């Protein structure tokens, strides 16, 4: 198993507002004394619209999971 992050921002909420980029949640956690942000890759979906960002996530999700597993095996 591995851990990966995908920033879910730039998407429209139920009110039609575009969500801003939030903070990196991995900065607040550690694993065996090592900060998560130093071993967990956090991705920013590409695209200018909600549809493009969802498409980016769909296209790259399998590769993101594989990379997380690879990182976990090496740490």
Task: Outline the secondary-structure elements.
Layout (H helix, E strand, L loop, with lengths): L4 E2 L23 E2 L2 E2 L6 E2 L6 H25 L1
Parallel strand pairs: 1-4
Antiparallel strand pairs: 2-3
Keywords for this structure?
75 residues; two-stranded antiparallel sheet; alpha+beta; 11% strand; single chain; two-stranded parallel ribbon
Tell me the strand percentage band. 5-15%
Averaged pLDDT: 86
The biggest beta sheet is recorded as: 2 strands, parallel
Number of strands: 4
Class derived from helix and strand content: alpha+beta
Q: What is the N-to-C succession of helices and strands?
A: EEEEH
Shape: flat
Count every helix, treating DSSP H or I runs of 4 or more residues as helices.
1
Main sheet strand line-up: 1-4
What portion of residues is helical?
25-40%
Distance between the termini: 12 Å
Computed over alpha carbons, the radius of gyration is: 14 Å
Low-confidence region ranges: none
Structure commentary:
With 75 residues, this protein is α+β, with helices and mostly antiparallel strands. Helices cover 33% and strands 11% of the residues. The protein has one helix at residues 50-74; strands spanning 5-6, 30-31, 34-35, 42-43. The chain has a two-stranded parallel sheet. It starts with a strand and ends with a helix. 4% of the residues are buried.
């Amino acid at each position: 198993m591995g851990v990966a992050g995908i920033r879910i921002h730039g998407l429209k909420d139920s009110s039609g507002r575009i969500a801003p980029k939030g903070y990196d949640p991995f900065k607040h956690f550690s694993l065996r004394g090592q900060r998560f942000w130093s071993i967990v890759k956090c991705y920013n979906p590409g695209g200018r619209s909600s549809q493009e960002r969802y498409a980016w996530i769909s296209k790259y999700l399998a590769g993101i999971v594989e990379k997380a597993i690879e990182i976990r095996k090496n740490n």
